[in-house]
């Protein structure tokens, strides 16, 4: 007979009450103004999906570099199955400097552009000894070893369906299930895991099969059941609703839809994605404290809450 494993509420009540009243709030990584609701922090698993061309990898790397720049103690491990480290760094070099990615990748740089790169190189150099990129084999066992080697707190898996778990599995779904089980162990050990996922086409509002935002949901993630269960937060990058734009536009409007939030209220965020420099920015500038006070004062004059 299996022995029961439990804890009585009265045994944990005092410590829990003291933590609620006097404890520190959960640590969250600062990934930039207007993105405060994206809950990346120790012990969490976040899932990011999106239709092709929406910039999943660019957004993930922007989060990594921004968080590491804001926190000089943060260490990160990135596993990308499709792109070498140099190309990932060139995207961030473009974002930080404002120099077009095409110019950087083709090495067609004028003197003025080279000057703009100096400060961006400094930013990347400042985090370089705290950032590692996983090389083949692309397995969770190798990811864990690389993360342990530098004591990484932030782990990026891009993308999750292509990273092999420990052991052999009969099908893709079983493989993803095992992967998510390992990822939860990473989180239990204090890591923040940002896992990127492929999505499948869905029916849009007009019944057409597409990647349109109004047709995508949690069920759109490939092998969705275990991904949905294992993630604390789930996000989709999708085309902004009613936005008139072509697939080859340099700047597109996107929405970061939060489909799941285990510990809070899901919140969507409208962004612009400048593909020429691989940069995401909030569509509306973040509200300053002075702006908040002004709005509160105006609401008070009108008797609003």
- Order of SSEs, N→C? HEHEHHHEHEHEEEHEEEEH
Instruction: Report the sheet-strand fraction.
Output: 15-25%
In oligomeric terms, what are we looking at? single chain
What's the average pLDDT? 87
Distance between the termini: 58 Å
Radius of gyration: 21 Å
> Strand order, biggest sheet?
3-2-4-5-1-8-9-10-11
Structural class: alpha/beta
Main beta-sheet strand count, sense and barrel state: 9 strands, mixed
DSSP strand tally:
11
Helix-residue proportion: 25-40%
What does this 3D model show about the protein?
The protein has 305 residues and is α/β, with parallel strands linked by helices. The protein has helices spanning 9-22, 56-70, 85-97, 101-106, 111-127, 140-150, 172-188, 224-230, 289-301, and strands spanning 45-50, 76-80, 131-133, 154-158, 192-197, 202-203, 209-210, 233-239, 251-261, 269-274, 279-282. The strands form two sheets. The protein has a nine-stranded mixed sheet, with helices on both faces. Strands 6-7 form a two-stranded antiparallel sheet. Helix 7 (172-188) links the parallel strand 4 and strand 5 (192-197). The chain is globular and about 75 Å long. The relative contact order is 0.16. The mean pLDDT is 87.
Can I get a quick summary?
The chain is an alpha/beta fold and 305 residues long.
Structure characteristics:
305 residues; alpha/beta; nine-stranded mixed sheet; two-stranded antiparallel ribbon; 9 helices; 11 strands; 37% helix; globular
